[in-house]
Amino acid sequence: MSKKETTQDNEAEKTGSGAAEAQDNEQAADNISEETQQNSSEEQAIELTPEQKIAELEAQLAEIRDQLLRKAADFENFRKRMNQEKQSSIEYANQTLLLDIIPIIDDFERAIIAGESGLNTNNTDYPGFLEGIKMIEKRFTSQLETKWGLKRFNSAGEHFDPNKHEALMMEKSPDVTEAVVQEDLFKGYLLKERVIRAAKVKVLMPEEK
Question: N or C: which end of the chain has fewer CB within 10 A?
């Protein structure tokens, strides 16, 4: 074979290879085009109609409304439970104080029984009975002060203070130049540092000149 013929064969082979490659590229482009058209057709196929979109939105809205109603019901139940617990706390807030008072009532009952028994047997030990009553009163006031902060105060001899004293009786006296408490008719009480009951007192007033 001559050199010229060999060259021609190579050129023919290259030409054929190029044609085949071009054909493959054209086929690939056609496949891509077909896939694009297919995807577009599928998108068009799943696109919702306006009625379907409205129905879907209404379903979503109904679900949200249902969730809100459940949340509102849960909150209402929580509010009722908290109100019940608050009311229960108010109703039984003094339970501990009352449990402290009950033994004092027991002491008074025993003192009354002892007094009645003494009268029935003509064996009236009044000094002993009086001492028992004093002990009960001291125990009661001491417990209220140390545990609950309730303190009784005396006012006799103090200057009259309308924030602490309530005048039930007044009397003119030449011995005073300003209003002075002469006597406690009912003692006053402090809770911590606050006056919760003013002392009911008899007051000496200066004579008018």
Answer: C
**pLDDT (tens place) for every residue of the chain, 209 residues total:** 544 445 545 554 545 555 556 566 566 556 665 655 555 555 554 677 888 888 888 999 999 999 999 999 999 999 999 999 998 888 888 888 888 888 888 888 888 887 777 666 666 677 777 888 888 888 888 988 998 899 999 999 999 999 999 999 999 999 999 999 999 999 999 998 899 999 999 999 998 86
**Quick check: 153 and 189 in contact, CB under 8 A?**
yes
Q: Which pTM does this prediction carry?
A: 0.54
- CB-based contacts of 208, cutoff 8 Å, min separation 6: 172
